[in-house]
Amino acid sequence: LLFLLLPALGAAATGEFDPYRVLGVGRSSSQADIKKAYKRLAREWHPDKNKDPGAEDKFIQISKAYEILSNEEKRANFDRYGDAGESQGFAQQQHRQFHRFHDGFYFDESFFHFPFNSERRDTSDEKYLLHFSHYINEIVPDSFKKPYLIKITSDWCFSCIHIEPVWKEVAQELEALGAGIGVVHAGYERRLAHHLGAHSTPTLLGLINGKITFFHNAVVRENLRQFVENLLPGNLVEKITDKNYIRFLSDWKKDNKPHVLLFDHMPVVPLLYKLTAFAYRDYLSFGYVYVGLRGTEELSSQYNINVYTPTMMIFKEHIDRPADVVQAREMKKQLIDDFLSQNKFLMVARLTSQRLFQELCPVKKSHRQRKHCVVLLTGEGEKFAEAYEAFLTFAVANTKDTLKFVHVYSDRQPEFADALLMDEEKYHGRSAVVILERRNNAGKIAYKALEEAWQGSKEDNFILLDLLDQLRTDPGLLSSETVVADLNDELAPMFLVRWFYSTLDYISDCWDSLFHSNWREMMPLLSLLFSALFILFGTVIVQAFSDSSDTRDSPPSGKEETAAKTEKNDASFSKESNSRIPKKGFVEVTELTDINYTSNLVRLRPGHMNVVLILSNSTKTPLLQKFALEVYTFTGSSSLHFSFLSLDKHREWLEYLLEFAQDAAPIPNQYDKHFLERDYTGYVLALNGHKKYFCLFKPHRSGDEGGTLGSCEDYDALQHAEARGKPSCSPGSRSIKNKLHKLSFWMERLLEGSLQRFYIPSWPALD
């Protein structure tokens, strides 16, 4: 009978929450109809507009229904299985049916204390529910103003049920103090749960300044309060006594902030005060006075403090008297927020950044919301102190909601000062007052400067007061317009300091991740670390074995030994050849013919070069042997290829190329009687097929030890020699052996890229 009732009970459970019924749409409705119904109901049941006691619950149901139906996958799962779960399949379907059976079957939860059905649970968590987009766009930015305590929970979680009473108590307490509370349902928000690094439920974590910290202690009230308190920076509130209160209050000029003192009889700083200090740390500096401590009597008596009632005082430019005071037997968050929000700035704040300029002097939105800034452009030091004090006295006497009094150090904001004063001589070394109004966020302002420099005299006060009175009735008084650049951030820490703190934060995150984070999170990092170590040590081991195998190679043949001994006199060449380890024990030199011409030159891969030796049939053997010895140390480079070209077959091709290098190897006229006698054997061309250029090596002449590298020698002497009928390049005039002398040095310069390059329009055909 129980299993026969299973489908009916499942249907009853499904009927508890029907998103179609909540939004009043049919199952065949389009997304446009669903969205239209959601907007209409959201406007109708929004708690801010609808004062019905059940409006908040109704609004939550509407939002949940729209979340399911706006997602095609969740909507399909609801239509198929009766809920919006993401898993599918027969096994999952049976699990859901079993789940719905327990949800629908009636238990007296007050007796069993196992509220498995999430719909019947305490709805106090529903107002804290987080969604992925809401978390990214709102919660993370808000975590820079207050810390968040977040719980990840799910259905059928016995531990979640166990900690629920403690969680409910702590959540209400911390929310009243100013902390943020969030709840993530892992069943519906798997993406967010995975993003937070929660792989089990329940999981508690803290969020502050966009950084996540996991809670690892027992879930009791004291531990949770201490966890949230530990999230806060340690330097938010300074302990104040008779010895340091003057120094603390006098720092208003350096910090450009009002200073707040809280007098209380608690030995430790209350968490409410720490949370408040974190929220207002950009605007105010906070100090705490424990009135029961010996060493605070002078401070308490000077400001007439009632030691039995918590007192909060705010000090601005004058440290001998507070600018505002509030006393209450129980300091509530709302009371403190109202008090501090009205005293966020000094009476005459100094513009130290563009952000502060935008807050104090906002852009006008309408004629009724005009706000003007009265700016004192002054300097530092005793020379300008009198003008500043007079301006401060005037500001205190004439403070209004539509007026803000500020001052700027001209030497720290020179661009701002020059734009307003136009670098006029009468203001040099003196203070000036300018009334301005920001017109847009691009820096455009309308302004009017006092005709004379500000000295703080009675006449100056009357002139400024008269201008402000005229401004109330005639906005056109600000007749000048200009565009000012963004202000410099004077209080920003140096780059090295920012880098140091960023490094400390990174090390702290790594330490916390290593010892406290879930090991599943650490697996990618550990995998990357071990992979890098494996590659590093593997490379070292392979290199060690390859070096040892090279030392066991057989000695060179007799011919190579003889050739090496012949070249011992050239010390530079020996040094270079000993410092290189070629990949092969021989030099692979191929003949450049019309068959392989395209692949070996024309379509040569980018970055590759073909080094071509020019020879004839009679000089082929000795030149190739010498060429192999000279280039052997360069065979380790995969971008170099070695070839030879027969001068007997392809003289015309060679002479066509050399025409583009006439400054290095001039070609004589074809009617020259020695034209056919020219000997090009021993020339070496480095051809770059992709970029269409070549570098030229001219054979070394005996008797010329300097030897020009990278181009030919002086060709005038050669032409004179040929004109006398003594061709210097003939095999009879110099030994074939010395033709390629110093080719290795030329190769070094080739790899360095320091040789002259001769460009051609296209490669000629090799017939």
From TrEMBL:
Signal peptide start and end residues: 1-15
PROSITE patterns in the record: DNAJ_1, DNAJ_2, THIOREDOXIN_2
Location of the protein in the cell: Endoplasmic reticulum membrane
Cellular compartments per GO CC: endoplasmic reticulum membrane
Positions of the UniProt region annotated as Disordered: 547-578
Topology of this chain in the membrane: Single-pass type IV membrane protein
UniProt domain J: residue ranges: 18-82
Biased composition (Basic and acidic residues): 549-570
Record GO biological process: autophagy
Keywords, sorted A to Z: Autophagy, Endoplasmic reticulum, Glycoprotein, Membrane, Signal, Transmembrane, Transmembrane helix
CDD domains (UniProt xref): DnaJ, TRX_DnaJ
Start and end residues of each Thioredoxin domain: 107-233
Functional note: Plays an important role in regulating the size of autophagosomes during the formation process.
Name of the protein this chain belongs to: DnaJ homolog subfamily C member 16
Organism: Mohoua ochrocephala
